[in-house]
Amino acid sequence: MPAARKTRKPDIKMVILGDMNVGKTSLLHRYTERSFKDTLSTVGGAFFLKQWGPYNISIWDTAGREQFHGLGSMYCRGAAAIILTYDVTSWQSLLQLEERFLSLTDSANSDCVFAVVGNKADLTDPCAQVTTTEDTPACPTPPHTPTVHKQVAQEDAVALYNRIIRYKALDTHTLPRAEDMCFETSAKTGYNVDALFETLFELLLPSIIRKQAQTQTGSATVCLEDSQEEKKKKIECCV
Ligand SMILES: Nc1nc2c(ncn2[C@@H]2O[C@H](COP(=O)(O)OP(=O)(O)O)[C@@H](O)[C@H]2O)c(=O)[nH]1
Ligand SMILES: [Mg+2]
């Protein structure tokens, strides 16, 4: 019943955080709309709903200035996954993740999954310059050599990810390797964008199934209670 599923509540919530202009909205747009627009403004927060197989995933986009309005932790409440995004050409944007955005994630679920994402990889990495399609090889000859200086190395992102795990006191034995949760993407060409979201969704699958089971148990209890109430009424009126 696809129509019924469309109107259903989201099964799980994800949030994308990071400074203004790192490409948060572009990443979500690339993933959900399969395209890139040069100008996409985010007023306050926006909400994307992605149907992944039989599951509904809500992805919350943020404007990047939420903490000034005390809204950041509200967006993160109940989040099962958080994408911390920086721009590979801006060291400052990586610093901001730790200085301004990490504390906003305190209201997320205690077992929240994190990904650290360096966007705009097309500006610095030849492999990220060609629009990714199913037919293109992994790293074809790039159209031109990138000229923009890369300010954030992958190792810096991995170090940040490890600090986040310590800050959150998450159990490293149950988590994927830090390297597997740090992505360099390009919303412009699509480079690594599907890999980012699909990796997160796969990791969230157990939580989705657990949440659905809890919801179903909850509704079964309600039905049972209703029917007992009905029975009671019938008995009372017959006496
Ligand atoms: N070259 C390049 N530009 C990007 C990429 N992603 C976003 N941009 C540009 O960066 C600017 C900010 O993007 P936007 O998605 O609005 O950032 P947000 O404020 O984090 O949501 C826009 O001009 C985008 O066109 C990317 O992957 N590569
Ligand atoms: Mg935006």
Automatic annotation (TrEMBL):
Belongs to the small GTPase superfamily. Rab family. It comes from the Eukaryota. Keywords: GTP-binding, Nucleotide-binding. InterPro entries: P-loop_NTPase, Small_GTP-bd, Small_GTPase. Pfam families: Ras. Gene3D superfamilies: P-loop containing nucleotide triphosphate hydrolases. This is Small monomeric GTPase. The keyword Nuclease does not apply. GO terms for molecular function: GTP binding; GTPase activity.
